[in-house]
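Margin note from the TA: students keep mixing up input and output lines. Inputs are the sequences; the output is the structure of the whole complex. Example:
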Amino acid sequence: MNAVSKEAPERQEIEALLPWHAAGTLNRRDRERVERAIANDSDLARRLMLVREEQQETIHLNESLGVPSARAMEKLFAAIEAEGAPAPVRRPFDLAGRISAFLSGFAPRTIAYAAAAATVAFFLQTAVLTTVLVKDQPDGTTELAAAKLTSNVHAVVRFAPQATSSEIVSLLNAHGAEVVNGPGRNGTFDIRFTNDPPKPEIVKVVQRMQSQTRVVEFIATKGL
Amino acid sequence: MQATSDEELIGRIASGDRLAMQVLFARHHVRVYRFVLRLVRDESLAEDLISEVFLDVWRQAGRFEGRSAVPTWLLAIARFKALTALRRKPDEELDEEAAAAIEDQSDDPEVTLAKKDKSAVLRKCLEGLSAEHREIIDLVYYHEKSVEEVAGIVGIPENTVKTRMFYARKRLAELLKAAGIERGWP
């Protein structure tokens, strides 16, 4: 018979949970069970100290393993470049779930203000982007700018929720950019620079736009 | 400024965003590397494997459903890659590595010297555990994975996770005892 089976099942169970208690990864119910047991059992408390020693040295051992060389990253991104964009996968989009998860981090009052501001911003952005995307033709008809330009995308951008329509237009004009497609998944828009600059210049312009955090939430080069 | 969540990065990666891939790689590659290295015990192979892990993420990001946290998903992929790589290794290489790991503690001058330093002996004994026991100890103590997460990564029931952890610790206590350290447990 081993040492475990000599002890009461409840105590065995508590002892089995000690490593997770030390690591702080128990759920609330189990954490409280372990804490109550330790408070009334000095031997169990001593065993927790042994667990903590093991934990400390395991962390020390892993930290001493060092870090991988740059070769791992170079190999990865060379493979990604060779492979191109991942194949699109159609999957159900749980919009309600995502919004709910996002909003759960805010206080109710914050949510109320943010919702009102976001509604205004959404309609303003929709209006301005419709203006940008839908171009009047000489014969009085309209067509989507994207229809002509999707083959020459330079970057993908997501505008900050608080950005106003005039700020978006100013930013695009200031950097010689125009929206050619969108909104895509995650509310992103494809943009191109009208003077078709060389790659290094595109990277610089994208970096400059990235610094405009009031208007740009996210931007990255695309198709270079 | 709030950092972009791992789940958001995966969403961007699914749409071909290389920048998001760089951020995810920068955030997690060291821990994934260390997890793999502890399993395969070969730095060069571990580097190759983490490239493969993140390449799989690039390819499969669109299929990620968020049923587990991203770091847990990464470790599950990494574990599969490491075990597959180990299966490809010739048996004699594995035998040599196992022999190197399970040294005769009583004849090891390093251990004899280190007896004065309990921490060093403990680390030496942690290295001497089997791959299965090293793995679970690392997942719980270093990677801070819950019982449920370990079960998901290793592919075993939650009760087996607890039992395996117990026996890993018991084996560790035996190795410590053989090295001259009696802990009074189990």
